[in-house]
UniProtKB/TrEMBL annotation:
Keywords (A to Z) from UniProt: Hydrolase, Magnesium, Metal-binding
Catalytic reactions of this protein: 4-nitrophenyl phosphate + H2O = 4-nitrophenol + phosphate + H(+)
Official protein name in the record: 4-nitrophenylphosphatase
Signal peptide residues on this chain, from the entry's feature table: none
Domain of life: Eukaryota
Keyword Oxidoreductase: no
């Protein structure tokens, strides 16, 4: 199982050797899955990125937190067809919800993507909203946060869900605020923690296990982040390999202030695995 951002690529730039390593693994008959917390894209959109970068992958091999969130809402929450989700997020979340037959409002709706002041006097609460789902949203604004707050405080039983709680995410030119930073204002205002779907939550692994048969003792999670990728693997009984091409640095795993999360293996880059081909 591979994380993507920071492991296979940075933005639109492949990490050297990543494609070759994946090819080696496939030739050896290994099953490959891509497990990402990036909720800005649907699996189909993510597949287009794989194709653009020349990385072999099928839609069925891609598990994103947007997809896992949609499956959670439809299959675990079993949201009735006449109920809705209010979305703080991007088109990828909407596409996955649509595929799962989940009704939603908010998201990329132009009425919500506004910088106009929000007023409760002109807001009508939709009584059918039974969950708020918050993911990475590059158009987040006060209107979206205010509407989500209203649903979570005024609609009885409304569930507070987040696709993931990553504080940051790596771009081609450096770190940016992640989905956890988008939901932070709501958590502060509500004094309430959400249900998190993505890594390291077991919900993501349950979603994968519902679709793919695998032996945890013969599976390894490869990631660049201790508190998501590595913790996710450990919680699921998987071996873990940390690469240092993303969030986590060598200083985070050595010395007096080292993290208590200890991976099974560490390498500088996924490309390093090319040297063991044939051994």
């Amino acid at each position: 199982m591979f994380d993507c951002d920071g492991v296979l690529w940075h933005g639109d730039r492949l990490i050297e050797g990543a494609v070759e390593v994946l090819e080696i693994l496939r030739k050896r008959g290994k099953r490959i899955l891509f497990v990402t917390n990036n909720a800005s894209k649907s699996r189909k959109s993510y597949k287009a990125k794989f194709d653009h970068l020349g990385v072999e992958a099928s839609v069925e091999e891609i598990y994103g937190s947007a997809y896992a969130s949609a499956v959670y809402i439809s299959s675990v929450m079993k949201l009735p067809k006449d109920k809705k989700v209010y979305v703080i997020g991007m088109a990828g979340i909407e596409e996955e919800l649509r595929e799962e037959g989940v009704s939603f409002i908010g998201g990329t709706d132009p009425a919500d993507c506004t910088l106009e002041p929000f007023s409760l006097s002109s807001f009508s609460l939709d009584p059918d909203v039974q969950a708020v789902l918050c993911g990475l949203d590059l158009s987040v604004n006060y209107t979206k946060l205010s509407k989500a707050f209203q649903y979570l405080t005024r609609n009885p039983g409304c569930q507070f869900l987040v696709t993931n709680e990553d504080s940051t995410f790596p771009s081609a030119n450096g770190l940016l605020p992640g989905a956890g930073a988008i939901s932070a204002p709501l958590r502060f205002a509500l004094e309430r923690d959400p249900i998190s779907i993505g890594k390291p939550a077991k919900t993501m692994l349950d979603c994968i296990q519902a679709k793919v048969k695998f032996d945890p003792e013969r599976t390894i999670m490869v990631g660049d982040r201790l508190n998501t990728d590595i913790l996710f693997g450990q919680a699921g009984g998987l071996a873990t390999l940390l690469v240092l091409t993303g969030i986590t640095s060598k200083q985070d795993i050595t010395g007096a202030n080292a993290s208590p999360i200890v991976p099974d293996y560490v390498t500088q880059s996924i490309g390093d695995l090319r040297v063991v081909d044939g051994q």
